[in-house]
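Reviewers of the previous submission asked for a worked example of the structure-prediction workflow described in the proposal, so we include one complete record here. The input consisted solely of the amino acid sequence. No template or homolog information was supplied to the procedure at any stage.
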Amino acid sequence: MKRIFLVGSPRSGTTILQSLLAAHPEVISFPESKFFHYLLYDQFAGKLPGRMEAFFKDEIKRPELLKDFDDSQTVEAKASWFVRVLDGLAAEQKKSIWLEKTPEHIYFIDDIQRFLPDAKFIHILRNGMDTIASMYEATRSFNELWGVGWDLNHCIDRWEHAMLTSHKYINKSNHILVKYEDLLDNKTQILGKICNFMGIEYDSTMLVNYQEKAAKLSLNLPWHKGIERDVKSSNVHKYHKIFTRKEIRYILDKIQRVKEEMAWKVTVEVTEPISDIYAWQICDRLSCTIKLEGIKLGIIELPIWDGMVAASVLADAVAAQFAWQILDRFFQRNRCEKGNKLWETLLEPLHPKHDWTLFMQELWGRPHWHLEDFYKPEIAEEVSTITVEKKLIVLEISEGFANIKVELSEIDVLVKVGGVAVGIVTVAVENNFVSAQKLRSTITRNIGFELCVATVREALLGKPLNGKQGLRSRLASCAQQRSNLPDCWNAPGAGGIYPENAVIFGRRSGAIGTSVSRRASLPAAALQEIESAAAIAGEPTMQIPPENEFPKQVFYVGEPTMQIPQENEFPKQVFYAPEIIGSKSSYREVSHSVKPQVFDNHSLTQKLPILSYRRISPDGLDAVTPQIFEQQLHNLKDHGYYSASWENWRSAKLAKTPLPGKAVLMTFDGGYLDFFQYAWPVLKRFDFTGTVFLVAESIGKTNSWEKAEFEEVPLMGWPEILQLRDAGIEFGSMSATHQPLTALSPTEIVREAVKSRAILGRGLEKSVKCFAYPYGDFDPIVAHLIGASGYTFGVSYQLNFSSFDDSLLSLPRIQVTAENALKLA
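From that input alone, the workflow returned the following structure tokens.
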């Protein structure tokens, strides 16, 4: 007889999983016995007989099975009696397995294993916010049945204990950990894994007969109402009507600590080969300590899909975050190799401007040029001249450039670094001629620091920093190696970037060096949603074929033509690959007239105030009245402020150059109808504009995510949104359903992001680049996935202005409410 225990936090999906497994022909299960809870929990001492009487007489209707129960026996004897009874019940029904489900048994796993060394345990883990909210609601609604003491902290503690306890058994062969969200996503696959763990064949009747089992196993308890419904995800989230914003942020802080503790932790030395990282499949977060010659640089956090983080994605993340430190150490080593032995002095970091000059000199092979020379297109050189007829040419940084004769007004240059494409730069043509130096200076100005990131990634990572090869020769070697491979972005064996049989989503439109340049892996479970968003945006999509089917060279890919696999054919790996450069966006960009700005010539904006408003309305909780809003804009105008754009600030940050005058960015969260009625007329009157963040699946509905705290009010529909779009208002995403993203699994985060991008892109007929984190809630994993899902800018809530050092995906906003007066220096 096989004995299996199903454990987890209360309200985490234990009953629905029990019902599915109990519908298997080989399995028998019962309502919660709570046997070991009553047997071993000191607070219940003496209550086991009463509990057993209720279980056998009232719940399973087998009172005769109590005849051999003796409360005076030892704990071991009572445990043996209980197991014999369940064995007998299973034998009666000709079942080979009994499944006992009591969430509280998670506290007594070690004891149960001592009594039953061959026992197996199924752990179910569920999204913390949903679990805590469900627990909190059930214990409030049915207090007389759940008992006292179930305040918010206790509900959080119960979920936290269950999660961390389950995580302790992640690598034990007699334990399997299952995510509730994965079960809803792919019932067949997850149930198949569980059946394999139980030693039985998967049976499709489980998905048919579970509803009948659910009705019996739940004992019709009121908090199990609806348990027999279809097993699928719901867009209704209980915490929206239970918890205030303050309570949600409090819960998120607790959840974040649990997630950090459960992360897969490894250390990587960047001068050694970087390999794929494998983790237990239940893990969804990587915390990777990065070391450079034994010295800690910092930590990279990335999502884990199907138990793996690809080396290509990790290397890109390392280069993006630590390129400058790695490059600086390379220059230090390089000088030491040339014979200078003042080691202590030489290992001191160089001045950033000096390092950048060294980098430009090495990258372009111009060791005697000054920094400003690399940006001057007029410098003449004696190089050959070639004639081209195509609008697109491909240039490798490590190769010498020629002058170009071409009968076009401009040409597109696909730039490669070490054989890997980093983006397309458009170069103006004058008198049918483009000099080599104009190509060089245009690339330097437009690609900027991404040249450094790509160079470090391709030429330095995974290799010792000493040696006689300089940067340019290292890049040339990389380019030569890649030229011999079937394809520059994928090849089996050494040098390949992506594995075979992966689905690849190619480069999105956007500025080089932003999130469009970062490699990312994506969840196969969200493939349909990702493909939909990519198709609407006209982004290239492909499936990598086996090696012998590769085209020799493909760099510029047209519209997506790939047939996305069906659910049961999902590939294991999905990537966003910036190396695949697709055609320009097919969006119809809507033009509108914008009045020229008059700047305060005595002021500069080195730190940008980004303001966040919720509602502009004459009534309503937490609303700023139109009168106060008008006064605020009047004051801003009197003090010389004007509306900047997201691209204005991105360009200023890239060049580290302040914006002229006094710039401000105004944003409005939620898409309330009162923005159209009250805020927009005032903005227009004072020549300001703004960005409105929409909850995509709530457009034209109401603010259902605020039920616990605010009155229900209407949101804008598409007629209002399109009218504002044509008038110059920008729109961004506030996710699909306004969920706090750090509480979600990586797959759920991506779905929230790409569903919203698809809905808004289709409705607006233009790309949506800005994302506002619901509740201002984000962490490095969330920011990475929002960028990977197609957004360039991400904004949260903080009490400070945005500076040049802020990541574009973590820009701070100042919340303006009815209570806090708006004061800008």
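The first helix runs from residue 14 to 22. We consider this example representative of the routine output the project will generate in years two and three.
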